[in-house]
User: Fold Precorrin-3B C(17)-methyltransferase from Streptomyces argyrophylli.
Amino acid sequence: MIGLISATAAGAAARDRLAAAWPERTRVYEGPVGQAVRAAFAECEQLVCFLATGAVVRLLAPLLAGKAADPGVVCVDEGGRFAVSLLGGHGGGANALAREVGAVLGAEPVVTTATDAAGLPGLDTLGLPYEGSVAAVSRALLDGEPVALEAEVAWPLPPLPVAAEGAYTIRVTDRAVTAGEREVLLRPPSLVVGVGASKGAPAEEVLGLVEEALREAGLSPRSVAELATVDAKAGEPGIVAAAERLGVPLVTYSAGELAAVEVPNPSEAPLAAVGTPSVAEAAALVRGGELLVPKRKSGARPAMATCAVVRRPGRGRLAVVGLGPGARDLLTPRAAAELRRASVLVGLDQYVDQIRDLLRPGTRVLESGLGAEEERARTAVAQAREGHAVALIGSGDAGVYAMASPALAEASDDIDVVGVPGVTAALAAGAVLGAPLGHDHVSISLSDLHTPWDVIERRVRAAAESDLVVTFYNPRSRGRDWQLPKALGILAEHRDAGTPVGVVRNASRADESARITTLAALDPATVDMMTVVTVGNTATRNIAGRMVTPRGYRWQEDPR
Ligand code: SAH
Assistant:
């Protein structure tokens, strides 16, 4: 039983919501708070106190007996924003309770136990059907006991701190095995069942055939992702009903598409009826995979249904994640979520350092030094193609002078790709400087390592002639010192010597520095590779120490 104690009206309202959600599990303790807490502590396995943690600590201190005996205690603050696991995180189940309470009340669970704070994903929250001892295996993971991951089917999972061998097992399988005592089975949606049926085939016959095929092949119905058939059978009631009862979508393909699939058992009958020599096998195989159960017919006379079962490999997931310019609070929540979702992280070592604390335990980190760009891109794609959830990281936006393009140039269509935008150096610098990007602007990288200088120069000239605000990336390094003066010279041919120029080094990082100078006064020697240089257009002004490009200057050209 979970004892509920509150003091204020807001606390009582939250308490009542929890009590209404869990009528069987909870009991409300009314009356003076001290008495209520003491009574609940004596009578319940767990407490949820809608009280300040300090108040609860003072009330409970004299009552504490020991880790093994004390109830688990969760405190919820007055605003209902946090569910704090205060006492008995593991033994008393308070960590799990804090999460559950959080889910009901929309509060953030606050867990300070080391292992939990390490942020393990719940085995029951991975989005896959599961069987077996989730509690025992989760506890083993939390307690740092060795848990082995046996992935019979490669599937993109979040990182889990698993060992090569262990007394506990997480098994990713579509086979119809039962979970051992210290085992959790995760059911990936890896099976596709192709079905064919004559007009009017009864649902029982279709469903019976599918179930029999799975049973005899030793496969779990919980891993069936979809039923597949030919377009002409999209409305065939027996097939539609079978999909419904299995709780999976029905996917259909055109006869032409199916006819093009090579199958072991083509036949004349469907060719005449719907225009493809195979329905069940072809529909199961059309998106690739391994044929586990070749076409079979139902036992009915005459047989009105056929089916075939294919195992489709898990589609890996490649998230290309921009980390922003450096400051943690300029890293988007979406980027943080992707980092925690990936089991493999690929990136430049200095960027990995920037976010290492956000990673879940068990994340495989593949870091490399400067320069190895194409290799990083290839590694990330290869890992995704093996069925992993991969995050490829870059500073700023990962699509701007960064990893997204080499990675996507490598990527085939057998993986899912997700981009997470980031705050670029140009934007971060712009915010520091004022509003230099208020009108049309471009970024130009001055690195001529991969781009010939004459191409760069042509673009600088075009930007100069078209009066664009220009942000120079990679402006100057030890070996490349003449490019920036040269580029500024080209701009100066079209802009006043007094045109404002913003120089921002390490935008949003601890040692950020910024200054606003002019085209004539800028000393290129003060610029390095941690810097972006933003040159204003002919309308940009230094106003009260801030660089401002007006949004429009139609009035300058408009004769009215
Ligand atoms: N993808 C990044 C750019 C990488 S190219 C982005 O979207 O911002 C590397 C160049 O970016 C550096 O040479 C420097 O010119 C610039 N840069 C990156 N981070 C910066 C920061 N925090 N402050 C200033 N310039 C930065």
Q: What stands out?
A: The two ends are 80 Å apart (CA to CA). Residues 317-423 form a domain with the Cobalt-precorrin-4 Transmethylase; domain 1 fold (CATH 3.40.1010.10). The longest strand covers residues 290-297. The mean pLDDT is 93.
